[in-house]
Amino acid sequence: MERVLEPEVMDTWEEAIEYDSMDFTEVNTAFAQRAVELGPPAGRVLDTGTGTARIPIIISQMRPQWQLTCTDLSKNMLLVGARNVEKAGLQGQIQLQLADAKGLNCEDSRFDMVISNSLVHHLPDPLPFFLELKRVLKPNGAILIRDLIRPASPDFVDAFVAGIGAEYSAHQKQLFRDSLHAALTIEEVNQLILTAQLEGVKIYQSSDRHWTAERAWAEGGQ
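Structure (tokenized):
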């Protein structure tokens, strides 16, 4: 099935509120737990495409030793995220920034870990993101990137959408359908990692609908 792009940014207030209202607690918690397992005991962590900051809030509660810089291109997502961060009392640990993950305004090798959940399928060309990830990450830094896998056929798309539950609205189901069409295959992710020359990254199918690219933090690296 060919890739069909969707908008790179969900930037209306209504979209941000609707996205934040969707219950991703289980998958967000699983992502946060894996980040903690792969990451350093303490340090600077970059979360790209943070959305409404639900994942960094969970991570911060697990790892108070981490300082998280969380970026997104959507002003309204970050406005909702700031509200969530304040409600959790984590303003001292989580910094939200309006920034493009493909061109960050920070020095080389700044971060001990880079994480990203459900960003890559929004990018028309994901390669600049992977190149920027390599630039801002320390050579020994950890990586955790997770996103949807593009199904092999429209029938699989229909099955996945039908399986997400009656609690989601028709519009939310359409958003999910669009995201599946815009997602990458594992083969495409492998090629991006190779082209960006990101070494030691493991890429695998982590659920029936997700791929994961990960690398553990290496103690003592330069």
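The chain has one domain: 13-215. DSSP finds eight helices and seven strands in the chain.
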